[in-house]
Amino acid sequence: MKKVFEIRWHGRGGLGAKTAALLLGEALIQKGKYVQAFPEYGPERRGAPVKSYNRISDTPINVHSGITNPDIVVVLDPSFMSSPDIYQGLDREKGKIIVNSELTPEELREKFKIDGYNMYTVNASGISREILKRNLPNTPMLGAVMRVTGLMDLEDFIEAVGKRLSVKFKPEIVEGNLKAIRRAYEEVKGL
Amino acid sequence: MSKLKGWKELAPGAIIEEAGNAVEFKTGDWRTQRPIFYPDKCKHCLFCWLYCPDSSILVEDGKVIGIDYDHCKGCGICVKVCPPKFSALEMVMEEI
Amino acid sequence: MTTEIRKKVLALTGNEAYAYAMKQINPDVVAAYPITPATEIVQIFSKYVADGEVDTEFVPVESEHSAMSACVGASAAGARVMTATASQGLALMHEVLYVASALRLPIVLAEVNRALSAPINIHCDHSDTMGSRDAGWIQIYSENADEAYQSLFIALKIAERANIPAMVTMDGFIVSHGMEPVEILPDEKVRQFLGERKPLYTILDVEHPITIGPLDLTDYFFEHKRGQIEAIKEAKKVIPEVHREYNEFFGKNMPDFFEPYRMEDAEIAVISLGSASGTVREAVDVLREKGEKVGALRMRIFRPFPYEKLREYTGNLKVLSVMDRADSLATIGGPVFNEVRSWLYDLERRPFVMNFVYGLGGRDFFVEDALYIFEKLIKAAKGERPSELIEYVGVRE
Fold it and tell me: Which of C325, C43, C3 shows the shortest CA–CA distance to C170?
């Protein structure tokens, strides 16, 4: 078995792919895991495709190179589905893709002619618009990641994220985000 | 000339530890002309002392007592500023 | 001395870790100018200053040249002084780096490795700090955020004991912008460990006025340089001493000059600096599984150059490779290679030494790249020596 679990996040500048990786990393570090969270480095531009990464392990992580063969890919914007970047290095059999989409995994497969992979969807943008009145799919997508991977107990995760967000945001915004995480956790399709 | 020190004898950081040691550097041998002081003509206005760029006018109790030839470079400013009606200072050629 | 330390682990990027260490050090003066990828260090630290979390006099200067100049003045006054920079910023500090070291001022610089222009690039290589290698500063290269955090404390203590300035480096973006767990040491313990700076001299002592930086011509310049060289030799003794004290005080196991990995019976080894070293160790594990006698040697301290230790590790090797994340641009490969190879020359038994230049301008370095290097070395050990001593890994032909 592979010792290190790797995640690749696909987003657009402004959608919070980097923040999602950092939030996940921080929560797992508080649980005593060894984690790396890093963006694909470069000038950050709103709207431009961006990637960020997580490496997660029970033992100290030696490698500092980029992630080329992730175990799981998280797609924050469904418009990426026709891009080959999403599938790069992902194992067709074991690889998992979680997509922010209103569609079911089956509908996505059909629409984009996707063969293989384990597909999951959740309407993270919809949840975010409803609860936070904005399209910020990153926190709800974290809920979906928790559901699909079981990396952490949901309540522990929510506590950790709440603590982190409270440093920067007003209580109602923190509450909204946590609610969105819970909703997404419940509403993941394809399990 | 004093013996130059070896590296082990020097202060760390190339600092100079003694204050005001520039006085050890005798600049008197730069001089080609020297000022001569006539005490009987001097009214002790101290213009020469004020203007001397090398602090070479020796003063005691508010009175000029002579010239520090170890450091005087012979610029002649003291002679220039000495009021003409006193003429207590005069430049002469250094003897060869 | 045994002490109970409850572990506090924070998720920090390399830059955040640097800034956190600086907060705990609470220097008297920080003069700095921001530059990618070190900007956050100064940004976060200035927030600590604004929030009153440190007592530091923060001097937001107009350039890195001014930053180091202000550091020199403050340090000569007896203050504990720090700054941070990267790449072009370090290059702009260059002439003042020499002043700091010659005046024996223990300034500590948090550096983030980034390529030097041109072409303009913001990513990691070691050309910036390699360019300062003869400026008389101690250089400590860190592999990850946690090590960079700890290294600032160690560097400060070494610097202030040896009265030699020190820079700690981390790889730009890879470490500076990557979040990792960092074990935070207790504030009080850090304060205790560092104690007070005892300056060699201070320009503020009116009872004992001194002159610093006087003109020094053919009569004394050489003697003063000779003294500085001796001080750096002394620093070489201070470095392991401070590491011992640090490890004992905090219950840590920080290596000093080198971090050896599976070197005991190794016949083939790779020397590397910085974040790629862990990647090399992964490759060592893969090859050890296959029975190859390979090892890895991470050089943590490059300045002063630890040739004595180097010889202890490399005496029994058949083949050694040096990985340089910078090129000398002089047809002779990277700087680390040249020094390593030169200092093995007069050994009776010495390995065949090759150079692999990698990762310029942030080009990623994978386990596969490390395996490729070892493959070449294994071949060389069997007598299949390459036609070129210097190879560029990961570049497109």
Answer: C325
8 Å CB contact between C146 and A35: no
Place of tokens 């020297």: B34
Whether C144 and chain A come into contact, CB under 8 Å, resolves to: yes
- Interchain contact, C9 vs A66, CB within 8 Å: no
Ordered structural domains, chain B, with CATH: 27-93 (3.30.70.20)
For the entire predicted model, the pTM comes to 0.93
B4 DSSP 8-state letter: P
> Which of C105, C214, C222 is opposite residue B16, by nearest beta carbon?
C214
Domains parsed from chain C with CATH numbers: 8-250 (3.40.50.970), 258-393 (3.40.50.920)
pLDDT digits (tens, 9 = 90+) for C77-128: 999 999 999 999 999 999 999 999 999 999 999 999 999 999 999 999 999 9
Least confident range from A8-17, C61-70, C142-151: namely A8-17
**Interface probe with C: pick from B1, B3, B7, B18, most Cβ of C within 10 Å:** B7
C289 Cβ neighbours under 8 A, 6+ residues apart: none
Return the pLDDT at B20: 83
d(CA B19, CA B12) in angstroms, rounded, equals: 16
CB neighbour list of residue C155: distance below 8 Å, 6 or more residues apart:
C108, C138, C140, C166, C167, C168
> What domains, with CATH codes, occur in chain A?
5-187 (3.40.920.10)
A13 touches chain C (CB under 8 A): no
Phi-psi region of C194 (alpha: psi -120 to 50; beta: other; left: phi over 0): alpha
Cα(A122)–Cα(A124) distance, rounded to whole angstroms? 6
Q: Beta strands A72-75 and A5-12: pairing type?
A: parallel
Percentage of chain B beyond pLDDT 90 is: 85
